Amino acid sequence: xxxxxxxxxxxxxxxxxxxxxxxxxxxxxxxxxxxxxxxxxxxxxxxxxxxxxxxxxxxxxxxxxxxxxxxxxxxxxxxxxxxxxxxxxxxxxxxxxxxxxxxxxxxxxxxxxxxxxxxxxxxxxxxxxxxxxxxxxxxxxxxxxxxxxxxxxxxxxxxxxxxxxxxxxxxxxxxxxxxxxxxxxxxxxxxxxxxxxxxxxxxxxxxxxxxxxxxxxxxxxxxxxxxxxxxxxxxxxxxxxxxxxxxxx
Length: 249
Ligand code: IPE
Ligand code: IPE
Ligand code: MG
Prior knowledge:
Elements: E1 16-20, H1 24-29, H2 35-55, E2 60-67, H3 75-98, E3 101-106, H4 114-127, E4 133-141, H5 143-159, H6 170-176, E5 187-190, E6 209-212, H7 222-233
Parallel strand pairs: 1-2, 1-5, 2-4, 3-4, 5-6
């Protein structure tokens, strides 16, 4: 893929960026607003970052919108988040489709309302032929849930005689995880000041570069993204190997 203007080489642009969009509640509280207002502002940020990632030649963007554990928040906050999700799906999908974005959702869908599930399925169907940017939304997602459902599928294959237990390897586990067949994230960005993974893509983040910023998600914009991309471009990714530099002894 050719490097977009402003980037020094295609190798310095991550192919897959994953984002933990954290800090909406604190953003709202600091303005004396209800947490839901922070989530609403967060949707705007997400829209801007999708656009910016497309412009920078990033091929896959995965956004953590709602975790398995977020179901334990007060019922009123969960409803506000679900309402926002339903509205955003109704409002944004046509424009995303026109811009060549392919939408995919990962997470335990059965806990979501039928309305949301239908809009998700429809969004996936009507954007499935697009390839400018693959936008993955993690909704009701947990890294442990993902590993459990992969283990269950593999166990069913063993039970039905299609798979020997000894044949289970990293490749077959990867293939049953929600992100398959997409590549693992090259760069993880977490806004909101915490330096933790919070049960996001436990398997897929094995060799991702991790970028944490204090910036709260509703304040995160394309210049924040560019800082994260500059951090990524400066990393020496060794994947456990020794990388010989030209001219070194
Ligand atoms: C992230 O913002 C959005 C979701 C987890 C749904 P938070 O709601 O976690 O905001 P803080 O971390 O409380 O500020
Ligand atoms: C992680 O944020 C989940 C999402 C951004 C969707 P949380 O706010 O739920 O994580 P913790 O509670 O700080 O670990
Ligand atoms: Mg949070």
